[in-house]
Design a protein that fits this description.
It is built from 17 helices and 15 strands. The chain is α/β, with parallel strands linked by helices and 454 residues long. The chain folds into 3 domains: 159 residues, 3-Layer(aba) Sandwich (Rossmann fold); 117 residues, Transcription Regulator spoIIAA (2-Layer Sandwich), CATH 3.30.750; 150 residues, 2-Layer Sandwich (Transcription Regulator spoIIAA). Helix 11 packs parallel to helix 12, helix 14 packs parallel to helix 15 and helix 15 packs parallel to helix 16. Bound molecules: iron/sulfur cluster (SF4). The site of iron/sulfur cluster (SF4) has 10 residues, from helix 9.
Length: 454
């Protein structure tokens, strides 16, 4: 069905349907847009047969008033240009006029560093969609002249309009203010992001996603989230359970997502409520201090068999220097608790190339993995099977607005050498899968998160 409404808005994600529908941020923008009676909304992705057209009616993207992308990962950003090309819409905003849609980009990439995409984008949305999207649509309703619309948005917090906020050399004329949810918004049930559509064709196959909180109680030095989303704010338990009830009418599988999902003060109660409703639950990665029995037991009772944690490195010394003062002993205790509760499979994430990293820290990663595996074997003996251990690695991407923003990135050769040290030291650990980092991806991510308009 084509979008019906006074305003035609196409909401897109710069990747495939599968990846897009796995993103709660994208699904939430669709939900928020569809809630307006006078707005007709359709979705678009990068799957080849429909590149440049919408999924619902195969309409040409050039026929819409607005093209609004959610871009969560730097590596997806070039797909925005490919989509404009496929739709026959000029890449440069300066070459577009009132015959073309307004090109809008929101999501983490807009906030981390909008400059590399600036020549192509009319408006970036900086902050919470719930707070900014209604103002954007109001401005659009009230102004038919493209230039005056951009001027109006340029005067509002939370919008970055490159044609008005950059000087002739492409340098920002000032700092733009992000607009984030505050405590009052977190207690409003209508503000709890949840899946708009539940489909088997996603990473979380058939799972309805619900956001638990924003921000994080920690401030790890490499983490963009902690320096930009602010302190931890949790959605109300009532609001979350209202979303659980809505989604449970269409799926028995729920996923709670957040940067610090384990830090919701009522998580144990919420998991128990899900178990009583016969729901199977998964959580996005847990902070290590949140891996407590009162969280892990109800999680296991809801069907979870794996948890993801991020030790980041192998020694207490380097971890403390990241402002993540968690000891290897505490990590192993958390693994043991998970095993005792029946959560068999462990995923651990590490970063190589951290400032101050030595070869000893790299061998420390292998040592931590070996001790983790020994614990898993010991617990697995009683069960009759040993869980799987996955170690995923990334090369440090120095993010803007963090204390590591100006740190150098490893060279390809050095990244290979350091990974070699880890793999040699980890040789012989049974049941361990190592997921090596993609240097090329890290390099692109670094260019796009630190690059300028050129
Ligand atoms: S715990 Fe995770 S989300 Fe929080 S600051 Fe550290 S890396 Fe970022």
């Amino acid at each position: 069905m084509p979008a019906v409404g006074a305003l035609r808005v196409a909401v897109g994600y710069p990747n495939t349907y599968f990846v897009a529908m796995s993103s709660l941020a994208f699904q939430w923008v669709v939900e928020l847009t569809a809630a307006f009676d006078d707005v007709g909304v359709e979705r678009f992705f990068t799957d080849p047969p429909l590149l440049g057209r919408t999924l619902e009616s195969s309409s040409h993207l050039g026929d819409f008033d607005v093209l609004a992308w959610t871009c969560s990962f730097e590596l997806d950003a070039p797909n925005i240009l490919a989509t404009l090309d496929a739709a026959g819409i000029p890449r440069r905003s300066s070459e577009r006029d009132h015959n073309h849609p307004i090109v809008v980009v929101g999501g983490a990439v807009a906030s981390i560093n909008p400059l590399p995409l600036s020549p192509a984008v009319d408006v970036f949305v900086l902050g919470s969609t719930e707070l900014l999207w209604p103002s954007f649509l109001d401005a659009l309703r009230g102004e038919t002249d493209r230039g005056r619309l951009l001027e109006t948005l340029a005067g509002m917090d939370g919008f970055f309009v490159p044609s008005l906020h950059l000087d002739s050399r492409g340098a920002p004329l000032g700092k733009r203010r992000r607009v984030e949810k505050r405590d009052a918004h977190m207690s409003d049930p209508s503000m709890v992001p949840a899946s708009h559509v539940v489909t088997p064709h996603t990473e979380y196959s058939g799972r309805g996603l619900i956001e638990m909180s924003r921000g994080c109680p920690e401030k790890c030095r490499y983490c963009w989230v902690s320096y930009n989303y602010g302190r931890l704010r949790c959605y109300s338990t009532e609001g979350i359970l209202e979303r659980v009830d809505r989604l449970s009418s269409i799926t028995k599988r729920i996923g709670f997502v957040a940067t610090a999902v384990g830090d919701h003060p009522d998580l144990g109660f919420i998991l128990e409520a899900c178990r009583e409703r016969g729901l199977e639950v998964a959580l996005s990665s847990l902070r290590i201090p949140a891996m407590r029995r009162e969280i892990l037991e109800p999680l296991a009772a809801s069907g979870a068999r794996s948890v993801t944690i991020a030790p980041e490195t192998g020694t207490d010394r380097l971890r403390t220097s990241l402002n993540k003062p968690i000891s290897n002993e505490a990590i192993l205790e958390a693994v043991a608790t998970a095993q005792t509760c029946g959560i068999e499979n462990i995923k651990m994430y590490f970063i190589i190339g951290l400032p101050g990293e030595t070869d000893g820290d790299l061998r420390g990663i292998a040592d931590l993995l070996r001790k983790t595996q020994s614990l898993m074997v010991a617990h697995g003996r009683d069960r009759g099977r040993v869980g799987s251990l996955l170690a995923g690695f990334n090369v440090l991407v120095p993010k803007p607005y963090t204390p590591y923003a100006r740190e150098p990135m490893l060279t390809r050769r050095e990244a290979k050498r350091r990974m070699g040290i880890v793999e040699t030291a980890a040789a012989g650990i049974s049941n361990l899968t190592i997921d090596r980092p993609s240097y090329r991806q890290a390099q692109w991510q670094t260019h796009l998160s630190r690059g300028d308009i050129s």
